[in-house]
Design goal:
Keywords: Cell membrane, Membrane, Transmembrane, Transmembrane helix. It is found in: Cell membrane. This is LrgA. The chain contains six helices and no strands. It has about 120 residues and is an all-alpha fold. It folds into two domains: about 60 residues; about 50 residues. The radius of gyration is 19 Å and the shape is extended.
């Protein structure tokens, strides 16, 4: 489990360092995830090394939302004052995320259909 966590945290650390050093508008963990995907493409055997630990992490993913929930409860005064604006932003961002997912799906489907033909 420790080597797997080391790989995951190293990818995140490198992504964070690159994002901060180059002042990129992309979060470091996202760059770290891209680095991890690249590493998995280069070394397919790494998948089996990561599989067990990643399964445990995903099984307990709900625990990661506890700090966010505590933050929301701690800032109820902000929520009560700006609830309408926050609701509008939440609805709009959800719609945009869904449109981005649909666009990505359509784009990938077109690319895979072009490769088959």
């Amino acid at each position: 489990m420790l080597p797997t966590l080391g790989i995951l945290l190293t990818c995140q650390l490198i992504g964070e360092a690159v994002a901060r050093t180059l002042a990129l508008p992309i979060p470091g963990p996202v760059l770290g995830l891209a680095l991890l995907i690249a590493a998995l493409l280069v070394r397919p055997g790494l998948v089996e090394t990561l599989r067990t630990t990643v399964g445990v992490i995903l099984a307990n993913l709900s625990l990661m939302f506890v700090p966010a929930g505590v933050g929301v409860i701690g800032n109820l005064d902000v929520l009560s004052g700006d609830w309408f604006a926050l609701l509008c932003i939440l609805v709009l961002s959800t719609i945009l995320a869904m449109l981005a997912a649909v666009g990505t799906f359509i784009g990938v489907r077109r690319l895979t259909e072009m490769r088959r033909a």
